[in-house]
Design goal:
A hairpin with a 3-residue loop joins β2 (95-110) and β3 (114-123). α9 (317-356) runs antiparallel to α10. It is elongated, with a radius of gyration of 31 Å. It contains eleven helices and ten strands. Strands 2-3-8-5-7-6 form a six-stranded mixed β-barrel. The protein folds into two domains: 5-54 and 264-403, no CATH class; 69-252, no CATH class. The chain has 405 residues and is of the alpha+beta class.
């Protein structure tokens, strides 16, 4: 009787069931690696999606000009960008419009006793290039207008109790910033991280009024430019700034970068981090593959007589090979299914926890290709691991197998 494919499958499943303890450990070793890979890739895809949201058509023609003075704009005025710098950029060929944003860390007090230090940003409402880049919209209330003094727009988290302060804010409430009360006229939609969602926005005129001579310069500048040869425009802007700041080439205390280049830099860093983590997970999968091969070799040694009987009644070498290859692939498939399910549970649970803590931009994503790809990868890993033992089993001579003790 010659084994057919259906019989191979049934026989393999029966063999796995009879060695439940050993096969369970083999499956466990593979599925843990798959779960780790699924978790990190899902978070990686989510981060890529978040970054790509900012690389919109409205940001393709924007340049960011930031001083090299500090890691966060506005925290160090040593190399602050000035009004002279802004004027120089506006006069540069290829620049349509430019604007400056001030940034400060401000003291915010609620109920005369609860004090927080918040990132305060100001801008020119007539040139809202910053919001064109980030694509942030008003969630509640209205935008600031030119000449709006004594008014601010808050980040989304101010709407929530015990998020920034014990009491939430609402429209027309007063908020104390640097000892001065401001009227709340709007709230921006959630961005997805605690810092951005806790920022406060006001007009440049109000920022100058609030800080006076303590306001040394802009935190950063944004320019809208001609995209037909953006590299040439960047070079021209750099030259204009060098002339404005009396700097030699190569000694710039600023850098000019297109928004798309900035996003590409973030993506490159993200690639490195996620790639490193996945490499570690792949090493664990490799160890699992070796374990699978060991399991299959042991299975072959335990079933030498069975192989001899099957060959004696007509089984071909190719069918014996398929029998053990299918068995190892099935182990990988089961591990893959369990791994992606477990990985999804971990990722979704972690995503919900992070979102509740205000880190919504870290939400994972689950494309169908991720599920299918990892299950296929696990199945292929199992099949490759079992190829050598399967080949060894197929070459066993019936006479030797029947005499095997």
């Amino acid at each position: 009787m010659v084994l057919i494919r259906k019989e191979i499958m049934i026989y393999s499943i029966r063999g796995i069931r009879h060695r439940a303890a050993r096969t369970s450990l083999t499956i466990l070793s593979i599925f843990l690696g798959i779960a780790v890979i699924f978790t990190f890739i899902s978070f990686g895809i989510g981060l890529y999606t978040y970054v790509n949201q900012f690389a919109t058509e409205s940001s393709a023609d924007k340049l960011m000009i930031i001083s090299k003075g500090s890691s966060a704009p506005g925290l160090d005025d040593t190399f602050a960008l000035t009004e002279t710098d802004l004027n120089a950029i506006e006069k540069t060929a290829g620049v349509y419009e430019a604007t400056g944003l001030y940034a400060k860390v401000a003291e915010v007090i609620q109920n005369d006793k609860i004090k927080k230090y918040i990132y305060l940003i100001s801008y020119d409402p007539d040139k809202p290039l910053f919001f064109e880049i980030s694509d942030i919209e008003i969630y509640k209330g209205v935008e600031l207008q030119k000449g709006d003094l004594g008014k601010v727009v808050l980040g989304y988290n101010y709407l929530l109790e015990d998020k920034i302060f014990p009491n939430a804010y609402d429209l027309n409430n007063k908020i104390n910033i640097q000892g001065k009360d401001y009227k709340v006229v709007g709230f921006y939609e959630p961005i997805g991280n605690p810092q951005d969602d806790s920022q406060i926005y006001m007009t440049n005129e109000e920022m100058k009024s609030l800080y006076g001579s303590d306001l040394k310069g802009y935190g950063y500048l944004i320019a809208e430019v001609d995209t037909r040869d953006i590299k040439e425009v960047i070079s021209a802007v750099e030259k204009s700034l060098r002339n404005s700041r009396n700097l030699d080439e190569g000694k710039e205390d600023f850098f000019v970068q297109s928004w798309e280049e900035l996003m590409a830099t973030y993506s490159t860093v993200l690639n490195g981090i996620i790639g490193f983590v996945i490499l570690i997970a792949l090493i664990s999968v490799l160890v699992s593959a070796i374990n699978t091969a060991n399991t299959m070799i042991t299975s072959v040694l335990e079933r030498v007589k069975e192989i001899g009987v099957m060959k004696a009644i007509g089984a071909k070498n190719s069918e014996i090979f398929l029998l053990f290859l299918f068995e190892s692939a099935l182990l990988g498939f089961i591990a893959g299914v369990l791994g992606v399910c477990f990985g999804w549970i971990i990722a979704s649970t972690a995503g919900k926890i992070l979102t509740s803590l205000g880190w919504g931009f870290l939400s994972p994503a689950y494309p169908l290709s991720l599920f299918i790809g990892l299950i296929f990868f696990a199945t292929l890993t199992g099949a490759i691991s079992g190829a050598f033992p399967a080949g060894k089993a197929s070459r066993i001579r019936p006479v030797d197998a029947l005499r095997y003790e």
